[in-house]
Amino acid sequence: MARLFHVPLSPFCRKVRLSLAEKKIEVELVEERYWEQDPDFMRRNPAGKVPVLRLDGIMMSESAAICEYIEETRPEPSLMPESPVERLEVRRLVSWFDDKFHAEVTSKLLYERVNKKVMKQGYPDSSNVKAGAKAIKYHLDYMAWLLDQRRWLAGDRMTLADFAAAAHLSSLDYISDVDWNRSETVKDWYAKIKSRPAFRALLADQVPGFPPPRHYNDLDF
């Protein structure tokens, strides 16, 4: 069985978990306190980051590379379109969420509110929280613009781009930092992806000291 070293609210881990679940790959989840830099974990990934996946006898790191490997070795159901131009758009949006959205939103909301407390690194920086709360509005508006033209974020079918976005937004939704009333289009998109069987394990996550809001597990939120 595959084994994934992860942190429950990490959007990068969640993206990998969604990919594995969508392709019905059984995986053992091992929660890893990567910030403690345990020697065994550092041997698995000298970068000291999660996720780390053991699959096919290979220990692999970096969520984008992991998802590409899963897609190439388990192509069904496909999370990447066939056209090079469409694949380019998927990769662009995955990078958008994992780089730009993460830097401007996730790191300033989730990391300040949750990670600092868990890692015992002090109190949230209010200026970062304020900046993240402002930036997420821009990103939700951009998603709404994309979804006004497409059925899914990257085109007419669900792809890894949708999983990347949902991974970040679900982590933020756990701490009630997403204004779903800002866009009915985005809310409907999230409801569709949240109702998929691949999402069930994520909705069962519990972080000690941080109970999820009531709507988090509700498919008809």
UniProtKB/TrEMBL annotation:
<feature type="domain" description="GST N-terminal">
    <location>
        <begin position="1"/>
        <end position="78"/>
    </location>
</feature>
<dbReference type="Pfam" id="PF13417">
    <property type="entry name" value="GST_N_3"/>
</dbReference>
<dbReference type="InterPro" id="IPR036282">
    <property type="entry name" value="Glutathione-S-Trfase_C_sf"/>
</dbReference>
<feature type="domain" description="GST C-terminal">
    <location>
        <begin position="83"/>
        <end position="219"/>
    </location>
</feature>
<comment type="subunit">
    <text>Homodimer.</text>
</comment>
<dbReference type="InterPro" id="IPR010987">
    <property type="entry name" value="Glutathione-S-Trfase_C-like"/>
</dbReference>
<protein>
    <submittedName>
        <fullName>Glutathione S-transferase family protein</fullName>
    </submittedName>
</protein>
<dbReference type="Pfam" id="PF14497">
    <property type="entry name" value="GST_C_3"/>
</dbReference>
<dbReference type="InterPro" id="IPR004046">
    <property type="entry name" value="GST_C"/>
</dbReference>
<dbReference type="InterPro" id="IPR004045">
    <property type="entry name" value="Glutathione_S-Trfase_N"/>
</dbReference>
<dbReference type="InterPro" id="IPR040079">
    <property type="entry name" value="Glutathione_S-Trfase"/>
</dbReference>
<dbReference type="InterPro" id="IPR036249">
    <property type="entry name" value="Thioredoxin-like_sf"/>
</dbReference>
